[in-house]
Amino acid sequence: MSAISRRCSRCAPGRCRPAAVRISAEAAEEGVDYLLRNTNRYAHSVSYIRDLAAKSGFAEVSMEEVMLRKHKGEPVQGYIYVLRRAPAGEFSVGG
């Protein structure tokens, strides 16, 4: 289980009620939910984050592709997500 899936499961409906969360995730290619890179950091696909957010009761407010950091001088691409608690009955995410 990735760090993001653990974080979202802790915020699943009925467990806690933050109004919004901000997360960053290294980019993984679509078709792969998440993977552990040789840097010992997880990378997540956009579709995986969106699905996990929806299952945890969050809707996407924004998503921005950014350079998160550099590793050995090379840029590491990823995303910054802002998610809000979805009103009851709202299930879709995506910006």
Share of β-strand residues: 35-45%
- Total domains: 1
Q: Give the tally of β-strands.
A: 5
The strand order across the widest sheet is: 2-3-1-5-4
**CATH second-level architecture:** 3-Layer(aba) Sandwich
Structural class: alpha+beta
What does the oligomeric state look like here?
Answer: single chain
Order of helices and strands: HEEEHEE
CATH class: Alpha Beta
Portion of residues in helices? 10-25%
Unreliable sequence segments: none
Task: Walk me through this protein's architecture.
The chain is an alpha+beta fold and 95 residues long. It has one domain (3-85): Vaccinia Virus protein VP39 (Rossmann fold), CATH 3.40.50.150. Helices cover 19% and strands 42% of the residues. It has helices at residues 3-10, 46-55, and strands at 20-27, 34-36, 42-44, 58-71, 74-85. A five-stranded mixed sheet has the order 2-3-1-5-4, covered by helices on one side.
Write the topology of this structure.
Layout: H1 3-10, E1 20-27, E2 34-36, E3 42-44, H2 46-55, E4 58-71, E5 74-85
Parallel strand pairs: 1-3
Antiparallel strand pairs: 1-5, 2-3, 4-5
Keywords, separated by commas or semicolons:
95 residues, alpha+beta, Rossmann fold, 5-stranded mixed sheet, 42% strand, elongated
Summarize the structure in short.
The protein is α+β, with helices and mostly antiparallel strands and 95 residues long.
